[in-house]
Amino acid sequence: MIPHRTYSQRDMRWARKRLGPSVITCGSSGCLSTCIANAIGITPAELIDQLEFTRDDSKYGGGMILWNDKNKETLRKLGLEYIDRYRSWGVDDFQKMKEKCTDDSYVPILEIKTRTNTRFDRHWVLPLGRRWSIWGLGWLSVDPWIGGMQKKTVGTGAPYMWETGWLLFKRV
User: Fold this and answer.
1) How many CA atoms lie within 13 A of 171 on its CB side?
2) Which residues span the domain enclosing 102?
3) Residue 133 counted as domain residue
4) What pTM value is reported for the model?
């Protein structure tokens, strides 16, 4: 199990904190920042103050965070080394994730899609361990939207979510 905190991105202490130069806030779009902060053991506000963000997430696909050398070095100093970004969710990716989740020195963060009414939204969660369910393999995860642990189910058979990719970090 990955050591973690269970902060919520919507905590009033940092929910209105802007993600860099944009008007986007931690409360609305800070799920990835909050997952990383939870894995490191600092507050989302402390992490946001140390990272650079972009106005256009479509180029970076990672919670408004610029994945530049400066941010990677900042994360390394905080105890997490950026390893890679996986954008697909095939059998090989699932196997890689499974292998990394059994080693506590690795910190995977899942990108999921959730269905709300008629649209799909991207969201990031910090998986803590595997659990089987009637829908397939699920992850006990820290969900930064609610700030607690929740079961997330993998796969197209799941009612409202599936993984679209993941980030991998290593504890240093």
Assistant:
1) 14
2) 26-171
3) yes
4) 0.83
Domain count, the chain: 1
Q: In whole angstroms, what separates CA 111 from the centre of its chain? A: 6
Half-sphere exposure of 80 (CA within 13 A, CB side): 27
Per-residue pLDDT tens digits for 27-75 = 988 999 999 999 999 999 999 999 988 776 555 556 788 888 999 999 9
Using alpha carbons, select from 118, 119, 109, 103 the residue that is nearest to residue 143: 109
- Residue 80 is predicted with a pLDDT of 95
Q: What is the CATH number of the domain that holds 73?
A: 3.90.70
Distance CA 129, CA 120 (A): 25
